[in-house]
Design goal:
The protein is an alpha+beta fold. Helix content is about 20%, strand content about 25%. A hairpin with a 5-residue loop joins β9 and β10. α3 crosses α4.
């Protein structure tokens, strides 16, 4: 009999083994059943372990998938992308891995261009020549012939001349801007309508003539003093690599090919045939007696 004033705690019905009774013709046979809890105790743990592994691997795989390519946005330039994406080797590494897609000028990239980060681009993304087109939106951060500030006069010196006659200068050499990876404009823009005759500034040998990525159709000529002149965004070419040209010889027609916002001639003087060896093109012409401005 329970003690007064106290309640007995009911026993919990805990069974670790259960007895099942199976009838066999009136006789009872006691069979021990393995507890369902014990038999499947490992299942939730295993499931949890599997889930944990899946959750750990999936983000890593997703990160690896998204970190190999980058889509250029308005306002981007290679140095900025390299900093934001923590690319080892900086903008030069990005340019080296994506030169076939960017072209010969790393400063001319446009929104939508897909860049490979950390691995060499498998295939060029901008290798096909583009047809001359109308001006593109300024938001594309392309090579832009800005409002003319000077008038280019016809050169009068013997041996050298202007690349175009009667043109006005748009964007000058070394104008700073975030759209250029080098931080500045590497040439001088002569604003001329499509179809204007482009001339070799001096006698020399054509080093290259053809598609130059963001430069569009371009010609590079080596001159006797070891300098190289470059003419970009042309609508058509009149010379080919290896050809000898004379001062004032037509080498093509102006246009708006490549990454531009309007027709003009992008003109550079270089110490080598390649991008990055630029010097002041107007100062070079003036040093050879050509009146500019």
């Amino acid at each position: 009999m329970p003690a007064k004033g106290k309640h007995r705690r009911p026993k919990s019905l805990r069974f670790t083994r259960t007895i099942a009774v199976a009838g066999t013709g009136g006789a009872a046979l006691a069979l021990p059943l393995l507890g369902a809890t014990g038999a499947h105790a490992a299942t939730p743990a295993a499931a949890a372990q599997h889930t944990q592994k899946t959750a750990t691997v999936a983000p890593a795989a997703a990160k690896a998938a998204t970190s190999t390519t980058y889509a250029v946005k308005a306002g981007d330039y290679l140095a900025k992308i390299a900093d934001d994406q923590h690319v080892s080797g900086g903008w030069k590494k990005i340019y080296s891995d994506n030169r076939s897609a960017i072209g010969s000028d790393p400063s001319l990239i446009h929104p939508g261009l897909r860049l490979s980060l950390g691995a060499k681009a498998a295939a060029p993304q901008a290798s096909a020549p583009a047809k001359p087109s109308a001006a593109k939106p300024a938001a594309a951060k392309a090579d832009t012939p800005s409002t003319a500030t000077k008038t280019a006069a016809v050169g009068t010196s013997s041996g050298y001349t202007l690349p175009v006659d009667g043109a006005t200068i748009g964007t000058n050499y070394k104008v700073a801007g975030s759209m250029w990876s080098s931080g500045y404009h590497t040439g001088t823009d002569f604003v001329v309508p499509t179809g204007t005759t482009i001339k070799s500034i001096a006698a020399g040998t054509v080093v290259s003539a053809g598609w130059g990525g963001a430069y569009g159709n371009q010609v590079v000529i080596q001159h006797a003093d070891g300098r190289y002149s470059q003419y970009a965004h042309m609508s058509s070419l009149s010379v080919s690599a290896g050809q000898t040209v004379t001062e004032g010889q037509q080498i093509g027609l102006s246009g708006a090919t490549g990454n531009v916002t309007g027709p003009h001639l992008h003109f550079e003087i270089r110490t080598t045939p390649d991008y990055g060896s630029d010097i002041d093109p107007v100062a070079y012409l003036r040093s050879h007696g050509v009146a500019v401005g």
